[in-house]
Amino acid sequence: MQLSHRVTNITEGSSDGWDIFYKARQMISEGKSVTELTIGEHDTRTDPEILKAMNHAALSGHTGYAVVPGTQSLRETVAARIQKNTGAPTSYRNVLITPGGQSALFAAHIATNEPGDHALFIEPYYATYPGTIRSVGARPIAISTSAKHAFLPRKQDIIAAATGAKSLLINSPNNPTGAIYGSQTLHDIAQICQTHGLWLISDEVYDTQIWAGKHTSPRALPGMLERTLVIGSMSKSHAMTGSRVGWIVGPETAIDHLINLATHTTYGVAGFIQDAAEFALKQGAQLEEKIAAPFRRRRLLAQDILDTQSIVGLMPSQGGMYLMLDIRSTGLTGEEFADSLLDAHQIAVMPGESFGPCAAGHIRVAMTVSDNAFATALRSLVGHAESIKL
Ligand SMILES: Cc1ncc(COP(=O)(O)O)c(C=O)c1O
After folding, report:
1. What pLDDT digit, counting tens, does each position of 253-307 carry?
2. For residue 13, is pLDDT > 80?
3. Comparing 5-45+286-389 with 48-283, is the CATH topology the same?
4. Atom of ligand 1 nearest to the CA of 234
5. Domain range summary for the chain, segments of one domain joined by +
6. Are 172 and 260 in contact (CB under 8 A)?
7. Mean pLDDT for the chain?
8. Ligand 1 centroid to residue 177 C-alpha, Å
9. Are 302 and 367 a contacting pair, CB within 8 Å?
10. CA dihedral sign of residues 309, 312, 313, 319
11. Percent of the residues in the chain that have a pLDDT greater than 90, as a whole number
12. What separation in Å is there between the alpha carbon of 213 and the centre of ligand 1?
């Protein structure tokens, strides 16, 4: 039977750069010990107090269909948090609760793009971006950046792609580069969106993991409230990856449009998960900082280790749970390096090429194992680079 092209074309027949990840998982299933520095999954589990709130909500009966847009109290809690953190006026009517950030990315693109429309995104990118855009029938247009410019988008490159496009997807703090967009970059982006009539889809799922600089939500910039959809998630901020709960914040008309979509797709998020998310958000910044702390520590640990050598370069990391390392001096591609590192040292990292061609010759390291294991893995990684360069 014929299946739809829209779905078979999501990854255009490639593995989307996940070969190393699958190879590592295969090795683990064969009983080998692999240090996995691939995906953005915390090495701590969801806080027991959050689980207690979830359990209590479930046992109290919040297990039936939940209202599609999200519970009024979670929407209000998210709105209050966003208004407090960004200064932008936000009510519960500006919030749709979604089953995680990924489904919010899908919803934001299908809500703003017609089939065939150009949907822009910045490269290097979170691995699902082009596939998400293809899945809604739009055409993904990558705006390339370079290591020379710290992987930040340049104004002229965005302008060159903007004419006729419908949306621009940005991600700051950035996965995979760790960059945080500065005020000039965000003002340029805001101006281009207004001049070219673009929706801005701002993926801010790492907004609690800030190590240097300042995170600004572009929705709060002049003229942006009416054209920005912010993607948020409890996955990274509260180590709730498996709970699948996130949100879209945007203009009321867009949220109404998205509620209609949710009614015909997800039909909302489990009530007891929403109650747990509300409980977690109400713990405030202290809990968020506790969950971010290991990454803050390991970033400094990596700086200390990498400062003592010059073969592996560390891209300046300002936020998020990953480091981007430059291994071009070994003469290998990111894929070759990652593959040989897995074979030689049973350490799995993501090749830069998985995040787009402009990240070739780099690898992304997730800081998601204990401090000791992380330091040991980094030292082995440097030793491996040195042995190749000899
Ligand atoms: C940049 C970015 N956006 C969105 C997501 C999706 O996260 P979730 O669907 O778990 O909320 C991720 C997950 O790694 C990510 O790195």
Report:
1. 999 999 999 999 999 999 999 999 999 999 999 999 999 999 999 999 999 999 9
2. no
3. no
4. 11
5. 5-45+286-389, 48-283
6. no
7. 96
8. 14
9. yes
10. negative
11. 95
12. 22
Distance in angstroms (rounded) separating the CA atoms of residues 101 and 111: 15
CATH for the 5-45+286-389 domain, from 3.40.50.10490, 3.90.1150.10, 3.40.640.10, 1.10.10.10: 3.90.1150.10
CA distances from 99 to 81, 104, 110, 237, 238 (A): 19, 7, 16, 15, 15
Alpha helices in the chain (DSSP H): 5-8, 19-29, 48-59, 72-86, 100-112, 129-135, 155-162, 183-196, 234-237, 252-263, 271-282, 285-307, 334-345, 371-389
Residue 233 near ligand 1, beta carbon < 6 Å: yes
The model's pTM = 0.97
Architecture of the domain delimited by 48-283: 3-Layer(aba) Sandwich (3.40)
How far is Cα 184 from Cα 186, in angstroms, rounded to an integer? 5
State the Cα–Cα distance between residues 282 and 303, nearest whole angstrom: 34
Length of the chain in residues, anyone?
A: 390
pLDDT band at 12 (very low <50, low <70, confident <90, very high): confident
